[in-house]
Amino acid sequence: MKYSILASLLVLSLNASAAQQSLDLPSCNIKAQRELVGETGGKITDPRQAHISVRANILSADIGTTRKARKITQTQADQMIERVAAIRRETDEFVQQQGFLSAAENASFDREFDSIALKLCKSDNPIK
After folding, report:
1. What distance in Å separates the CA atoms of residue 120 and residue 100, rounded to the nearest whole number?
2. How many Cα atoms are found within 13 Å in the side-chain-facing hemisphere of 47?
3. Most buried among 36, 38, 81, 101, using CB within 10 Å?
4. What mean pLDDT is predicted for residues 94-114?
5. Percentage of residues in the chain with pLDDT exceeding 70?
6. DSSP per residue over the chain, as a string?
7. Given this model, what pLDDT does residue 23 score?
8. How confident is residue 41, by pLDDT bands cut at 50, 70 and 90?
9. Of 88, 22, 102, nearest to 55 (Cα)?
């Protein structure tokens, strides 16, 4: 009887500590995210567009992970995903109109991605 109570307490404490662990999200490492290099091909014709595409993919996955861990609400996740999708659309439109994504536009989109990442990482994970 004592052993079953001890075993139950051990399982509960392990579950509680696992639930309290922070998520290790790639988006939280801002420096590494800014240095990402994407590959061109298909609809992606510009290297800066490829960079934005890779960041958008990683950030979208991290938003999903954070939502599954119940660290953000569904409404917050939907808003973040919509903003990421809008940035991707704007990037594609700039490349289609101009033939490239300017450094200034790339920097602006990177700052927006950084802002979204900050919201994901601020409570749980330190920003690197």
Report:
1. 30
2. 4
3. 101
4. 97
5. 78
6. -HHHHHHHHHHHHHHHHHHHSPP--GGG-HHHHHT--PPPBTTB-SHHHHHHHHHHHHHHHHHHHHHHTTSS-HHHHHHHHHHHHHHHHHHHHHHHHHSS--HHHHHHHHHHHHHHHHHHHTTTS---
7. 76
8. very high
9. 88
pTM, rounded to two decimals: 0.78
Domain segments of the chain: what residues? 70-128
Burial 94-115 (b: 16+ CB within 10 A, else e): bbeeeeebeeebbeebbebbbe
Q: What is the C-alpha to C-alpha distance for residues 47 and 13, in angstroms, rounded to an integer?
A: 48
Angle between helices 74-98 and 47-68 (to 10 degrees): 170
